[in-house]
User: What shape does this take?
Amino acid sequence: MTRETARQLVKQMAETGRLIQELRWRELAALDDDRARQAADALIDAALRVPLPSARRTGSGLVQQQAIFQRASRR
Assistant: This one.
């Protein structure tokens, strides 16, 4: 692949990303409350189907994270 071909691909990918983002915002603006609730329920249901590691069943790690932040702020 030449440099020029790579540049064209990157430019095309950037434009495609911009168009997809534009489409996403239009679809969100047109979303009614009922369909939004259905989509949210589907996402929550999908997340609940993923098995958690045993360590996550007993804690989120938030307490440990806060302790790390406290120690770092004392330095």
Observations:
- The mean pLDDT is 93.
- Residues 3-30 form the longest helix (28 residues).
- Residues 3 and 58 are 52 Å apart (CA to CA).
- The two ends are 50 Å apart (CA to CA).
